[in-house]
Write a structure and sequence with these properties.
This protein is α/β, with parallel strands linked by helices and 267 residues long. It has nine helices and twelve strands. The protein has helices spanning 11-14, 25-41, 54-64, 73-99, 126-133, 157-168, 198-201, 217-230, 246-252; strands at residues 3-9, 45-51, 104-106, 114-116, 119-122, 137-141, 143-147, 151-155, 172-177, 192-193, 235-240, 260-262. The strands form two sheets. Strands 3-6-2-1-9-11-12-10 form an eight-stranded mixed sheet, with helices on both faces. Strand 4 and strand 5 form a beta hairpin. The chain is globular and about 50 Å long. 44% of the residues are buried.
């Protein structure tokens, strides 16, 4: 049976979010190699890759307030600038994957996404399904989108993945970042988060290091709980991509890997 996994490489992992358009080339190259090896080791792995915007899109998005809406001519110029920044990072990610020998296909969310007051209402799913069926690695990313209420907005990588999950129904959503998982107030990894213990965990969830216009860890965990409630077959793992070999191992054995698991209370 095919194992369908959504993997997100966090913007804080592949870029320096305290700078402006600063990628981490060595880390990106290593992660691409680990993806290649995992795909080779398990030919039945169907993988969708997403990556955050990090110090590329977030910085421009914060400057122009694009997430909140786009109306004036200057704001539309900013909208285009955010799109360009997101695409520049995507080109670097695609280059790393190509150099690693991964047959990757970039699918730009803004080409098909339509939002309504910040929520994705339309997104082309069939190209992703066909890429997976062909044995390719479809790649999506945080991007701008047209919005029927706001004019324009920004959609995060997780929001794009959530919009795709209803049709593609992955078994796992893996979130690779800088930290080994969600940490409690003592700095220890929380092994499991469900609705039952979210209130207990919430005080330890801070914001985001650097600029992040789509919210930090607290908003991400909340949205992930909403996602597994809607998709109870799926589990989510938050783990560190900084440790060599961790990504490869997590792709091959997501059930027993390290990090924090988020799942529905009925799973």
């Amino acid at each position: 049976m095919d194992l369908v996994i959504f993997l997100k490489l966090g913007g804080s992992l592949i870029t320096d979010k305290t700078g402006v358009e600063q990628v981490r080339p060595a880390i990106l190259a290593r992660l691409a190699q680990e993806i290649r090896r995992a795909r080779e080791d398990n030919p039945r792995l169907k993988l969708l890759l997403g990556h955050g915007s990090g110090s590329f899109g977030h910085v421009h998005g914060a400057q122009h307030g694009t997430r909140q809406g786009v109306e004036t001519a200057d704001q539309w110029v900013g909208f285009a600038e955010v799109s360009g920044a997101a695409s520049r990072l995507n080109e670097l990610v695609m280059s790393a994957l190509g150099e690693a020998g991964v047959p990757a296909l970039s699918l730009q969310p803004s080409a098909s996404a339509i939002c309504e007051d910040g929520q994705i209402q339309e997104l082309a799913v069939q190209p992703v399904e066909m890429a997976l069926a062909a044995g390719l690695l479809p790649v999506v990313f945080g991007d701008v989108a047209f919005d029927r209420v706001r004019g324009g907005t920004i959609i995060s990588t997780e929001e794009v993945m959530m919009a795709l999950a209803g049709r593609i129904r992955p078994s796992w959503l893996l979130l690779a970042g800088e930290t080994p998982g969600v940490l409690d107030l003592e700095g220890r990894v929380v092994p499991l988060i469900t609705e039952a213990n979210m209130a207990e965990i919430a005080p330890a969830l801070g914001g985001s290091r650097g600029t992040d216009v789509t919210g930090g860890m607290a908003s991400k965990v909340r949205s992930m709980l909403d996602l597994v409630a809607a998709q109870p077959q799926m589990r989510i793992r938050i783990f560190s991509g900084l440790e060599p070999g961790q990504l490869e191992g997590t792709l091959l054995t997501p059930e027993s890997a390290s990090g924090t698991v988020i799942r529905s209370t009925v799973n």
